[in-house]
Design a protein that fits this description.
Low-confidence stretches: 1-23
Shape: globular
Strand content: 15-25%
Strand order of the largest sheet: 2-1-3-10-4
Oligomer: single chain
CATH class of the largest domain: Alpha Beta
Mean pLDDT: 92
Number of strands: 10
CATH superfamily of the largest domain: Periplasmic binding protein-like II
Number of domains: 2
Structural class: alpha/beta
Distance between the termini: 17 Å
């Protein structure tokens, strides 16, 4: 770890009182976790942690509430009905601009895994500019799928107001919206996208399931799914926070080594959308998107800030302190103990 990162981690240790979660019992055992589209591969680490029993082994009772999209899970945190969220890193930047800071404590996805695709029923759409005036399905307005499209529109001389966004969720409802011809394009994730591709329903315009696709879309690395919460929660529950990060670091290490068949055995059948073979292929495409260790990079945070400034007026008008949007301190502590 570079000296700058060591100093930053030390500062967080002093501020939040971090120590090994096993040193004492956690402060808060019963937790409510919000997520926006749990069956999506974007959030696979959450389901794997749950199904492998890692939360219980850490002494935590975690109630998972699944919402239609990341914006709604963020609202649950802000409204006080959730303690923690697995959601998009983007929200940590946006909320600081609104004066309601949240902090990401573990990186789950190092590439977004979001795909923007044209719906073939809607006619031929081969470029971003041809989306003007079209209806675009996203998991939920204000979610990371929405942000990706917003950014691409601005990069092609348009604004988000040039299209209509429709929330279609991240599962069978998204597939149905395409097949019924309710939308002209879709920004979504696997396994939804792989299902639509296999059925010949969509044509890809932009794909961030790979490092190359992420660089082509955003111009740099881009943090995706993270575990985030409020600074107040972290300060009041440092050992609980550490226990949660331990769970996800352990899960990421398991995923990094797991074979496809190992993952399939862990998941509930309904995740496969009726086609386990296709889901297996989707997982193999998505596996590189997961962080191997949970660490954030300053470069990734800067990329997210640049993207959000392009279309979010509040972010553009605020001097964002990126050091407050994430911390690696808990992950570094986990990595000392979890091999």
């Amino acid at each position: 770890m570079r000296m700058k990162s060591v100093i930053a981690a030390a500062a967080v240790v002093l501020a939040f009182g971090i120590g090994g979660a096993n040193a004492q019992q956690v402060e808060k055992k019963d937790l409510k976790l919000a997520v926006g589209g749990k069956p999506l591969l974007y959030y696979l680490p959450l389901t794997v942690a749950e199904r492998l029993g890692y939360f219980k082994e850490a002494g935590l009772n975690v109630e998972i509430n699944d919402f239609g999209g990341g914006a709604k899970s963020l609202q649950a945190l802000v409204g006080g009905s959730a303690d923690i969220v697995t959601g998009a890193f983007d929200h940590t930047v946006q909320m600081q601009a609104k004066g309601q800071p949240i902090t990401a404590v573990a990186l789950l996805g190092r590439y977004p895994g979001i795909v923007l695709a044209a719906v073939n029923k809607a006619g031929t759409i081969t470029s971003i500019k041809e989306l003007k005036g079209k209806k675009i399905g996203v998991t939920a307005p204000g979610s990371s799928t929405n942000f990706m499209v917003n950014y691409l529109l601005t990069q092609h001389g348009m604004t988000p107001e040039d299209v209509s966004f429709i929330g279609v969720g991240g599962g069978p409802s998204a597939v149905a919206a395409v097949k019924r011809g309710e939308i002209d394009a879709i920004a979504n994730l696997d396994p939804v996208i792989s299902q639509l591709e296999a059925d010949g329903d969509v044509t890809t315009i932009a794909d961030t399931r790979t490092e190359k696709g992420t660089l082509d879309t955003y111009g740099g690395p881009y943090p995706a799914a993270v575990l985030y919460t409020t600074p107040a929660f972290i300060k009041e529950n440092p050992k609980t926070t550490q226990a949660l990060v331990d769970v996800f670091v352990r899960t990421l290490k398991w995923l990094d080594q797991a074979k496809t068949e190992d993952v399939l055995k862990v998941l509930p059948p309904e995740y496969f959308l009726g086609n386990q073979t296709l889901y297996a292929q989707a997982f193999e495409h998505s596996k590189p998107t997961y962080s191997p260790d949970g660490r954030f990079s300053q470069e990734g945070a800067e990329a997210a800030y640049k993207v959000l400034k392009a279309f979010d007026k509040a972010v553009a008008a605020t001097d964002i302190d990126l050091s407050k949007t994430y911390t690696n301190a808990y992950v570094e502590d986990s990595l000392k103990r979890i091999k």
